């Protein structure tokens, strides 16, 4: 009896697997290694290389490993790129999720934790995003995540699927230096790589209506995120009632300028970021409440910004030395 983590060889997925292993909950990984890394999967965790688009492989994996629930993280995750590659995004995130649900129903697996995204909200005109904030995604990626949530809700009505979806913004840091963010688009790895190469990072706009003029966002530590995926899985396994959707937010957020200042302090690299023009479509502030998740899933942020930066920098340095 085990939980399947799709995308379990990726940055976030590998941290989720680590949380399951530490809790003594059996787990198996399915990952196509499009952006994942086989070395991120512990040697004693069963690893199946393949895509969730392969229904036969999904079904075989569910049966062979006696899977009772799924944490679904596999998919195409780059919101900006999704605008130029919408068909790939929908194939991976919508068709892939539908295929996974089809095979789960076929073999009687009825529990799923969906790794969704705050991109489902688009650019909300509120100071604090809650689960009742209207969804209005602005990219194929955000749209595909919202459709994924709809698929889960429809399967609940049609086949009794028990599920919940976790929406979050920017995930940073590392729980262990062996697991690190390799995204070519995320702020932390981009800035840290530039600094390691002796180049200067940039801030896109410093004239927003925020305290220091730069954009404010939620940044959450990947270890806290992984712990909440585990908590959601255990809640479903225990039969506890859950909301369909939870935001994993900080409640206050941090600015890009604060991040740059903290990175300089932690790394000891004295730099002044270049201020570039605003990027089209960047809202001044998007911050979410995590109150519902705290109530039902024990969500809390155990890492401050300095800890997030320090763990990310240590992991980046370790990766560069390999």
TrEMBL record:
GO terms for molecular function: UDP-glucose 4-epimerase activity. Residues 3-249 form the NAD-dependent epimerase/dehydratase domain. Pfam families: Epimerase. InterPro entries: Epimerase_deHydtase, NAD(P)-bd_dom_sf, UDP_G4E. One of its GO terms (biological process) is galactose catabolic process via UDP-galactose, Leloir pathway. Signal peptide: none annotated. Pathway: Carbohydrate metabolism; galactose metabolism. Belongs to the NAD(P)-dependent epimerase/dehydratase family. This is UDP-glucose 4-epimerase. It comes from Friedmanniella luteola.
